[in-house]
Design goal:
It is a single chain. By secondary structure, the chain is an alpha+beta fold. Helix content is about 30%, strand content about 45%. The chain has helices at about 5-25, 25-30, 55-65, 135-145, and strands spanning about 35-40, 45-50, 70-85, 85-100, 105-120, 120-130, 145. The chain has a 7-stranded mixed sheet. A hairpin with a 2-residue loop joins β3 and β4 (about 85-100). It starts with a helix and ends in a 9-residue tail after the last strand.
């Protein structure tokens, strides 16, 4: 696997993904997704397309900001398959939500995304996540590879 492609994917998608979450920046977050996006799973356990996704993200980020809450996301990977202009990546995420009063909660989940590089830029085309088997997720998160550990996925 070409680790330069993985680094480009990190620069185009994963690093800005975490920054957009931390800033509650819905337009920046949505720009990381392709117009043909299929979004499945999540807390609502539903399937939607890109047309419905902005309303969900904008509403959620606005609710958090309105309450003075913050959120951060960390991603770790168990599989990264990247070739030419397509990628399949699986991993575990940690979401930390902190209320204005300082009370925080940590959530874990598994994700699987498919991305495509068009016009020299990577975007997420399919995004699936789940919190099934949540009892082991923190352990799995810690055992997975950091987003910048691209050499872990060399053949």
């Amino acid at each position: 696997m070409d680790t330069d492609l993985v680094r480009q994917l990190n620069d185009d998608v994963w690093h800005p993904f975490a920054v957009a979450y931390a800033r509650l920046d819905a337009p920046a977050f949505l720009a990381l997704h392709a117009p043909e996006l299929i979004r499945a799973g999540g807390p609502a356990k539903q399937v939607i397309g890109f047309a419905e996704y902005p309303d969900q993200i904008e509403e959620w980020f606005a609710e958090l900001a309105g309450r003075g809450s913050s959120v951060s996301i960390s991603l770790r990977f168990v599989e990264r398959i990247v070739a030419n202009d397509v990628a399949s990546e699986r991993g575990v995420f940690r979401l930390v939500s902190t209320r204005a009063d300082g009370d925080g909660r940590t959530f874990y989940g598994r994700f699987h995304t498919y991305s495509r590089c068009t016009d020299g830029r990577w975007r997420i085309c399919v995004d699936y996540d789940t919190d099934e088997r949540s009892a082991t997720l923190e352990e799995e998160f810690l055992a997975a590879f950091d987003v910048d550990d691209v050499d872990a996925f060399k053949e």
